Automatic annotation (TrEMBL):
UniProt xrefs under Gene3D superfamilies: Metal Binding Protein, Guanine Nucleotide Exchange Factor, Chain A
Protein name: Guanine nucleotide exchange factor MSS4-like protein
Superkingdom of this protein's organism: Eukaryota
GO biological process entries: post-Golgi vesicle-mediated transport; protein transport; small GTPase-mediated signal transduction
A Gene Ontology term for the protein's cellular component: cytosol
């Protein structure tokens, strides 16, 4: 991992951990409790959450990707509260909300057992439970 200095003091605590609980942007399902993940700044490409259909052929889908640089690094998949995983694609699984299947929210690498949850794909707030 490289670049673990949090650039956004509003979401990180003094140790670089998530200061707030992490929720799905679509259904508000709790994904991760506070102080369970570390900030990392690495480049990861994720498909956009909306799949575009070609104007020429309604059956032809174009999958556009987005390069994201700010993520929560989660060491163990059992740290997540509610996380779904896609089928494996090249030793990688996409992370999706377990409640509404919105995503991809990040990546899980099978061989290293590392998960990266993209900050821009989730919401943050104090967990009132």
């Amino acid at each position: 991992m490289s670049g673990n200095e949090c650039l956004n003091d509003e979401v990180c605590d003094e140790s670089g951990k998530n200061a707030f609980a992490v929720f799905c942007k679509r259904c508000n399902c709790l994904i991760l409790r506070e102080k369970q993940a570390s900030f990392v700044a690495i480049q990861i490409e994720l498909p956009l959450s909306e799949v575009k259909t070609s104007a020429n052929n309604a059956n032809e889908q174009q999958i556009d990707k987005e390069s994201l640089n700010e993520h929560w690094y989660v060491e163990n998949i059992y740290t997540f509260e509610n996380m779904g995983f896609s089928n494996t694609v090249n030793d990688t699984k996409y992370l999706v909300c377990a409640e509404c299947e919105y995503g991809p929210l990040g990546l899980h690498y099978i061989k290293s057992n590392q998960s990266y949850l993209s900050l821009s794909r989730v919401a943050f707030r104090k967990n009132e439970n």
